Request: fold
Amino acid sequence: MSNLLIDRELDAPPTTAPGLTAAGRAVRRTRLLNWVAVHALALAAALFFVLPFVFVFLTALMSDQQALTRNLWPDSWHWENLRTVWETPGFLTWWKNTLLYAGLGTALTLLSSIPVAYALARFKFRGRNFAMLLVISTMMLPPQVVIVPMYLFWAKQLHLSGTLWPLIIPMAFTDAFSIFLLRQFLLTIPKEYVDAAKVDGCSDFRALVRVILPMAKPAIAAVALFQFFYCWNDYFGPQIYASENPAAWTLSYGLESFKGAHHTNWNLTMAATLLVMAPVIILFFFAQKAFIEGVTLTGVKG
Amino acid sequence: MTATTIAPARRPALSEGLRRKRRQERLRNLAFLSPWLIGVSIFFLYPLVSTVYFSFMKYDGFTAPTWVGLKNWTYVFTDYPFFWPALRNTLWLVIVMVTLRVLFGLGIGLLITKVKTGAGFFRTAFYLPYLAPPVAATMAFAFLLNPGTGPVNNILGSLGLPQPGWFSDPHWSKPALTLLALWGIGDLMVIFMASLLDVPQEQYEAASLDGAGWWQRFKFVTLPNIQPIVLFAVITGVIQTMQYYTQPLVAGKVASGVIGGSGQQFEPGYPEKSTLTLPQLVYHLGFQRFDTGGACVIALVLFGLAMVFTAFLMRRGSGFLATDD
Reply:
């Protein structure tokens, strides 16, 4: 990039206007070169990010025979592969289980985390900073640190192994990351709104529900999406608690065993992979803003 | 913590009304915080204490635990053949994978702020892989990097380039994992993009007037402005690496041909312990070898490492705790 150009000048798309001086033409040429260089680089990067999806898609639609060859483009399109995967015994059950885990988990997380996040953002009490420290510590903690006693607790005392309940029930008792994210957002809402509501005779709970929640909608949507995808993508939890009972497997856990059942069939495995990725990608196109807001909230507003 | 600064004896006697108000406030705080108080006790504090307890016990999950002192600890550090390779791998992943992720994320962030035509397409393309479920992404990469028929070696071959064994070669398995991690850079790209757009334009203009080239502008304007975000990305990257579990496990399983189902024993870290990470050892010792004590030792090592990095994050980012009053 030339030092003649400050970044803002790149905003203008390059045009060819007649009647320019030689110096003006030179500036325009540099700007055009700049534009070409940036977009060529972006295209190259985009290939790195997009091609894996393309190859997965193409292979998913190949015939069994062709998927074993080095061909990149299908000779004939086998859309029925998707159907074969869908009708594989268990696949529909994995979907139902994943939806149950992600749906119920997200709802319970929101219900339990919102009041806690609000209290940590707004109420004054002794040990509030220590509480926040604990929230961040639990957020950073690998789940494997506490898994041994937790497994013994659920399996030996409550006899709930082989189900998804050991994963869902804890969500009714908050999730550290959700508390953290919600609290960071709630801090940005001026206190005066709640003060005014309380002068009008609102209780703390009513003020939270009627005044704060409508204002916090973007953060709540972001937390809901993050939690939904955490559950959707979770592999370790289902492996620990549900692996012994195939009727309780989720998509993430089942997908891996699918490769085992269809050992050499990369086409069916990639069709299954595609079907597991699809909901995430579809939801992204509906909720782009909430995703981006969630990510920026974690990183920037710290 | 202001309440503790006033000695109780010197506190003026409160009126009945004020006392009732204080009591009501305490009850309200307790009510709002109760889900978390219960959660953190049952799902964090209790198992943490329990993990320490079990780390001194011999326990197979069936017969009653017996006290063995430091035996589990010495076993893990001296005799358990997976521990040091796992720690070495973690170190490799922290240095190489985290560094590359931050540099690449920053690069993509810089690039996307310069793209004017088709910005929406590029942003979506760069972001989407981040959302792919880890198991699905790993399966996809196991296929793409499959040494025999995978598209990547296919293309490398037709260009006359060497074709690595990727997940099947102990020297290439970690680079393959790194490639997978770089593919899912979308979150960092967004964070860097947001912070880059926040850099005051006047500073760039001033630097340009002083004759600064793009590298000097990057070094003296961009970097100082985004430095907290770089630090944030490094530390969260390190913490993510401490938790790195699904990708190395699934990649190892697919590459080794041992996969799926309960009851199937898998020698972790295929090939040649090159994809071992500490979280995998907790599973291996605790749930495959039924050595509860050893698993708890690994869990505590992991806890120690995670807490060191969290403490660092807290010291540098005390802004996380700040409130408006």
The first strand of chain B starts at residue 57 and ends at 58. Residues 5 and 286 of chain B are 47 Å apart (CA to CA). Strands of chain B lie at 57-58, 66-67.
